[in-house]
Amino acid sequence: MPGVIIRPGESLEKMMRIFKKQVEKAGIIGDLKKRMHYEKPSIRLKKKSIAARKRRIKQMRKLGLAE
Q1: Could you tell me the pLDDT band of residue 14, with boundaries at 50, 70 and 90?
Q2: 59 occurs within a structural domain
Q3: By the 8 A CB rule, do 19 and 2 touch?
């Protein structure tokens, strides 16, 4: 869980930037967006396979094996 200890003399803006970076790194915002709406398991599987296919194509391009 992200958290920031405020030290005397440090600005609130700096603490907010540090906190935002920690939240982003932890992936909390992405997880929250995912859970906003219910997604049927079949649709979740379909999205997962599409993402895997895209990753595989990208990796093949990187290695120079695809067109």
Answers
A1: very high
A2: yes
A3: yes
Would you say residue 19 lies in a domain? yes
Taking CA atoms, 36 is separated from 29, 31, 32, 33, 51, in Å, by: 11, 9, 6, 5, 20
Return the residue matching tokens 């982003």: 24
Is 54 a domain residue? yes
How many C-beta neighbours within 10 Å does residue 36 have? 7
User: Is this model's pTM higher than 0.85 or not?
Assistant: no
Q: Which domain holds residue 58?
A: 12-63
What is the pLDDT at residue 44?
A: 93
Residue 1 pLDDT > 80, yes or no? no
